[in-house]
Input
Amino acid sequence: MSDTGLSRFLGGSPAQVLLRLVFLSFVVGIVLSALNLDPLDLVHMTINFFERLWNMGFHAIGRLGNYLVIGAIVVVPIWLLTRVLAMGKSR
Output
């Protein structure tokens, strides 16, 4: 009973799955070696990619905040002036 549950979990018999994993590991090892890539280099490249993405995201939010402040310096006084002038006309 547990063998069928294990086979279902693994996606085949344990021996077949082990053979497939060994074959795929060998092929991937050849490809990575041909590309002169080390698995740890791939991990570091992935981590660096997400760190740059994270930092760019906050930098972009900071730039949007700067644009908001620059625009508000012009828009808010004009809006306030129009509200004061509109209040004077309604009296």
In short: The two ends are 89 Å apart (CA to CA).
